[in-house]
Every structure is written in structure tokens, then in C-alpha cells.
Amino acid sequence: MPSLDWYDCPIVLPYYGGKYEMSKKLIPLLPPHERYIEVFAGGLSMFFRKSKAKWNVLNDKDKNIVNLYMSVILKRKELIDNLFWIPKSRDLFLNFKGEIRDENNTFEIPDPLQAAKYLYCIRYSFNKLIHTPFSMNKDMNKDWEAELTYSRKFLGGATIENLDFDELVDRYKPRKGDFWYLDPPYIVATEKGTYYNHSFTMEDHERLRESVQKIHDAGGHFMVSYDYREEVAELYKDFDCRILNWKYVGATDEARQKGRKEYVIINYEPTQQINIFKENE
Fold it and tell me: What is the pLDDT of residues 15-64, one digit of tens each?
């Protein structure tokens, strides 16, 4: 049985770097909009927690993430069956993880077995990172029928894309009435190089800045979440670059007590003046 809090944000994928808790603070800051575009879907915490816009576009370059959401929409019964019957096994975990990280592993979307393998690996990975070891403390014993059916209602009517971010901006020409949310791999992920299935280089961070400029120039609104780094401050110095103090969501009690700073970059004045940028100081 999921927690009552989950029903306010019924995520399917507990994704590393996701905004499940932070979205509670960020959602009230969003401007009115007709079209909502989430560029780096991941766990989709912002989308699942906010009110649906008239048009919704959900994108991720990671084919496994897109396949999972498409399987929830189109192949939910088969996905649930696979999740139910796959036993908890370190060997299976390692085999599935090898398949997922194999760049030559091809599949057609939607593939509910591939989606089950991916969700299995994320949920059994230490700290929800695909490259980390098998965690004995994780549990897959859930009411998948109830949870995925509920999440499916939120996904209904949304357009799911599997594009690089600049292709997405070119396909969905930014316009007035848009709100684009961008939560890219952080620079620390670029330096580590192992957090996600796809690399994200410093050149990609610079390309992203150009795409954000296109959104701004076309009259669209945006919010970008980023790590607290000098490189980010320099890249986005022409926009409203605010500092958010936050508690780190880690795998241990000690890690969860660590404070950190993040950037929240916007090109509009929030309609609700909620002070979240000085808490925990």
C-alpha cells in the first residue's frame, strides 16, 4: 500500500536526482501555462505533482525511461505480470543491468519485459543508481495493479518523446504560454560519468544554455534545476539564478542530514512569493 503522500505525486520510477521532495517547494513557483514540456523526464516528479496543463510533452533521451512510461500506458498488464513473476535475485539483477547498459541491446517501444527489467534494476540498486551494487534491503513487493493504474491516469493524454534536448526544442517550437522544466544531469554527474546511461559533457551543458535562450527569446517561460557550481552561475548569469538550500536525500541517515545548495534558474517573476531560498541557513 503506497503512502498517502505518494498519491499527491504518483511516480513510477524512483529516479536518482529526481525532485520528489523538492517539487513540493517548486510547484507553487510555476507561472500559468497552457503547454508544459519536461525536457529530462527521469522520475517525472514535477509532472506528477503539478496540475496538468492543456498540452503536456514528456521527453527523455534514455530509451529505457521512455519505454517504461510507454509500457505503463500501452502494456500495463504485461508489465505488471513481469514485475510479479521476476524473483529477487542478485544474478538476475546483474544480468539485467548488463543488458540495460549494453549499447548494442536493441528493443522496440513498448517492450514491457524490458521495462520490468529496468524498473527492477533501479529499485534494487543502491541509491537508485543503475551502476551501483545490488541492495538486499530493497523490496519489490507492491500492489503494481493499483499503483500503475493510478499513475496511468496522470500520463493519459501526454505526448511522450525520446529526443535529445535540442531536437525537442526544434520540434516543439517555444512560444508564449509555454512552461519548460529542465532538470539536466548535474555537472557532478558529468565529472563522475557513471550516474546515468548517457553521458552529458560540458559541451552538452553549453548546448543546453543555447536551447534555453531559444525558449526565452520566443517568449516561453522556463525553470532549470542545477547543482551549485561556478560554471552554472557563469552560464546563466543573464537570468534569475537563485540559490536553494536543501537537505540531501541519500541512502543513509547521515547522508540525509547533509545540507547542500542548488541553483533554480528562471526567466519570470513567480506569481506566489514563497521564500524557499533561505531555509535551513
Answer: 877 899 999 999 999 999 999 999 999 999 999 999 999 999 999 999 99
* 58 Cβ contact partners less than 8 Å away, ≥ 6 residues apart: 38, 41, 44, 47, 69, 155, 158, 159, 160, 161
Phi-psi region of 156 (alpha: psi -120 to 50; beta: other; left: phi over 0): beta
CA distance linking residue 281 with residue 277, whole number of Å: 9
Looking at 3.40.605.10, 3.90.1480.10, 3.40.50.150, 3.40.50.720, the CATH number of the domain 1-61+163-281 comes to: 3.40.50.150
Region for residue 152 given its phi and psi (left: phi exceeds 0; alpha: psi -120 to 50; beta: otherwise): alpha
Indicate the CATH number for domain 63-159.
1.10.1020.10
Task: Give the count of beta carbons closer than 10 Å to the beta carbon of residue 47.
Answer: 23
- Contact between residue 88 and residue 140 where contact means Cβ atoms under 8 Å apart: yes
Secondary structure element (H or E) that encloses residue 223, with its range:
strand 221-227
- Residue 253 predicted with pLDDT over 70: no
Q: What is the pLDDT of residues 91-100, one digit of tens each?
A: 999 999 999 9
Cα–Cα distance for residue pair 2/139, rounded to 1 Å = 13
CA–CA dist 222, 248 (Å, integer):
24
Domain boundaries, the chain: 1-61+163-281, 63-159
* Closest listed residue to residue 33, CA positions, set 225, 228, 206, 174: 174
Report the alpha-carbon distance of residue 47 to residue 49 in Å, rounded: 6
**How many DSSP H helices and E strands does the chain contain?**
12, 7
